[in-house]
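Milestone 3.1: sequence recovery, worked example.
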């Protein structure tokens, strides 16, 4: 999993994933592993999982190119909301869904701007 938008909400999602990982394993036989996070200025990537959530973000490891390289199975998009354009979230969600991977939109700007198109893309890519 990856989180785009690593402010207060993104960090809380990371804590919840950690706290619930044993439950997900027991109930769903699913390994929950956060492998990447990114904010507006930087990010972290560790294929085995990010252990130190307080480690400083590495400059430049952010944006659509970074998320494309990471190619997470699940992307949580928690960045700032932009209802007029969908903001960077729209690009992140479009790329993630277009690749047939799951996405969770926490900020609603992209959904307000292009919700029907995103739902159709998700359906078309399974």
């Amino acid at each position: 999993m990856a989180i785009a938008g690593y402010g207060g909400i993104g960090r809380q999602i990371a804590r919840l994933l950690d706290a619930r990982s044993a439950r997900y394993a027991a109930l769903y036989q699913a390994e929950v592993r956060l492998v990447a996070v990114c904010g507006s200025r930087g990010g972290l990537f560790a294929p085995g999982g990010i252990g130190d959530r307080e480690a400083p973000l590495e400059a430049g490891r952010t944006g659509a190119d970074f998320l494309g390289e990471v190619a997470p199975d699940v992307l949580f998009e928690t960045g700032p909301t932009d209802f007029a354009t969908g903001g960077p979230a729209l690009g992140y969600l479009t790329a993630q869904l277009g690749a047939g991977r799951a996405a969770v939109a926490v900020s609603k700007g992209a959904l307000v701007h292009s919700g029907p198109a995103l739902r159709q893309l998700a359906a078309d890519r399974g």
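The longest strand covers residues 42-45. The helical segments are 8-28, 63-70, 87-98, 109-125.
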